[in-house]
Amino acid sequence: MSEPFVLGWEEWAAFPGLGLPAIKAKVDTGARTSALHAVSIEPFGPVDKPQVRFIMHPVPDRPEVEVTCAAPAVDRREVTSSNGETELRWVIEARVKIGEREWPIEVTLTNRETMQYRMLLGRAAILDDMVVSPTTSCAQGELGYELYKDFPRRKPVKRPLRIAILTREPKNYSSQRLKEAAEAKGHVAEMINTARCTMAINALSPAVFYDGRKLPRYDAVIPRIGASLTDYGMAVLRQFEMTGAYILNSAPAIGASRDKLYAHQVLARAGIGMPTTAFAHSPKDTKNLISHVGGAPLVVKLLESTQGKGVVLAETAKAAESVIDAFRGLEANFIVQEFVKEAAGEDIRALVVGGKVVAAMKRKAQAGEFRSNLHRGGEAMRVKLTKEERATALRAAKAMGLAVAGVDLLRSDTGPKVLEVNSSPGLEGIEKTSGKDVAGLLIDHIEAHVRTMTGPPRRRARSRKAQAARAEAGAGPAGEAGRDAAE
After folding, report:
1. Which residues 6+ apart lie within 8 Å of 351 measured at CB?
2. C-alpha to C-alpha distance for 126 and 381, rounded to whole angstroms
3. Residue 27 needs a FRET pair 20 to 30 A away by CA distance; which of 194, 255, 271, 448 works?
């Protein structure tokens, strides 16, 4: 019986077919999938035999060393990383060489510039006659980055992004501000009318067409999808995601926020305060609906309502029964909510971007009106959020899965209550009231996720003493897993 082929917890690997003579790889049996660092990933070639072109920076601290690689694409696959984020990745097949052994493996392509290793070797790539020694480093010998000394150098540059703004209203304030903010940072922003998009659904070569013309690959898509086109808009978004674009707010998150009943269930499950809400299908339950929210006055709200339309205040039980019966006669879906009287016709819009509240405003209804929406004549003014209000807004956006959200809050006697979480918040009122460049902050968030700068990875320096201590504590293959692997 032959000796097993021993792999250390880290190894030097080469990909001869990709033109990569040396890559430092983390060997992790806790991760199923192998991953290779790649940026500027772009599919090309025929639909039935697609290929992928990408740029690799093999030396972690020398971004000027740049290798352009290409390989046949064998799949698109969703991979969940150790921090719980799911990413749709291209999968290629390539021959890896470690020591004197060379064999084909499937490897996913993803940006690993913040990781210590440019490659992760998962257990699916480890053959039956191989064993991993968790205490051995580079069991198959050393290579070195000096193998790249004759490779061309390229000064790190900030790459302009191609951004699609998905909207049917290209001339409104929000769309124009997003375009201006993107172009001010050197990017290209294009307005795409959602309704004019068609899709060619294919596992390896997904495409979006616009008036019959195939759209190019976008780095990011900003969805500004109207409520009347939610379902189709979400399908278009999913298709853009299939092409590899970063989606500012995902289709599932938008769908959840637009379904007011489901949104309240999500918020309730997360333990977030909101007005008591009731829903029923049977006309026999009208009185029960009213009692569930504490009686009149109460608010009756269409599930598809936007900008305050389809929202009615019923001040008496008799009026509530009449409104509910009228909505049922129209076969409309609606919810009944507690009326928070102490809010006095005021609410707060907190705008969340990337897990931070970046701006806020207070909206006050005009005289004789309880709806504070600016589209209904409400007045906007500056406001200072309390710590509890800020925390509630962040929790609500996170519960809905939204990177960008307008969270509407009421100030009640029992603390802040979430009225609604908007996945396409308007920018005009909150920018003019707060004085904040919200559009610019949205573009900053996109840049951070698409990583437009090809440069050294930004990570905290670690002393040799600290590294030795981690090694003694068994931080070989497992100690790094929380930060660098487990995909």
Report:
1. 357, 358, 359, 360, 404, 405, 406, 407, 425, 430, 438
2. 61
3. 448
Is 129 annotated as belonging to a binding site? no
Three-state SS at 398: helix
For residues 283, 286, 288, 292, the Cα torsion angle rounded to the nearest 10 degrees is: 120
Domain that holds residue 376: 343-444
373 among annotated binding-site residues: yes
193 marked as part of a ligand binding site: no
Check the annotation: does 480 bind a ligand: no
- pLDDT tens for 257-266 read 988 889 989 9
Listed residue (386, 365, 383, 387) closest to 374, CA to CA: 365
- Maximum C-alpha span of the chain: 89
Residue at 440 is within a domain? yes
408 a known binding residue?
Answer: yes
- Cβ atoms 266, 420 nearer than 8 A: no
Asked if residue 310 has pLDDT above 80, the reply is no
Tell me the average pLDDT across 11-19. 93
Q: CA–CA separation, 42 vs 48, rounded Å?
A: 16
Weakest-pLDDT range from 154-168, 396-410, 449-463 = 449-463
- Does the annotation list 291 as a binding residue? no
422 is in an annotated binding site: yes
Q: Yes or no: say if 92 and 18 are a contact pair by the CB < 8 Å rule.
A: no
Q: With contact defined as beta carbons under 8 Å apart, do 251 and 225 qualify? A: no
The pTM for the full model equals 0.68
Residue 326 has pLDDT above 70, yes or no: yes
Is 128 labelled as part of a ligand binding site? no
User: For tokens 């692997």, what's the residue?
Assistant: 485
Q: Which residue has the tokens 């972690």?
A: 60
| Whole-angstrom distance, CA of residue 165 vs CA of residue 239 | 15
Q: Please tell me whether residues 28 and 79 are part of one structural domain.
A: yes
Q: Both 94 and 204 in a single domain?
A: no
Asked if residue 165 lies in contact with residue 179, where contact means CB atoms within 8 angstroms, the answer is yes
Half-sphere exposure for 38 (CA within 13 Å, toward CB):
26
In the listed set 339, 362, 387, which residue is the last one of a domain according to the structure?
339
How many folded domains does the chain comprise?
4
User: For residue 463, what pLDDT is reported?
Assistant: 41
338 is in an annotated binding site: yes
179 annotated as a binding-site residue: no
Structure tokens at 284: 């026999």
